[in-house]
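wait is this the right file?? whatever heres the structure
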């Protein structure tokens, strides 16, 4: 039996594979990688140098994202493609 999470990741990966890299694609991959709670308190953008810029609503969420950066980067790259995200930069900003 295959876990539902693995099926969803594989299906999403297949859907995103042939789509051009865009803000929407990055946002979808971010949301799938981090889940609804973290997605709600963050915003992301991908720079041309492969830096995923994450803006968290407050220091608490910035710290949580920072602690999980290796796992998050791995999950986002699984959906966007190998080494699309080269590094993750987390900052704090006012709520959206």
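ok assuming it is, sequence goes like this
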């Amino acid at each position: 039996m295959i876990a539902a999470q693995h099926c969803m990741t594989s299906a999403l990966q297949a859907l995103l594979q042939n789509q051009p890299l865009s803000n929407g694609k990055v946002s979808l991959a971010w949301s799938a990688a981090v889940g609804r709670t973290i997605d709600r308190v963050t915003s992301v953008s991908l720079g041309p140098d492969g830096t995923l810029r994450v803006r968290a609503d407050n220091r608490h969420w910035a710290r949580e994202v920072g602690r999980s950066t290796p796992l998050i980067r791995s999950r986002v790259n699984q959906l966007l493609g190998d080494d699309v995200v080269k590094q993750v930069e987390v900052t704090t900003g006012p709520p959206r």
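Residues 4-92 form a domain with the GMP Synthetase; Chain A, domain 3 fold (CATH 3.30.300). so i think its the right one actually
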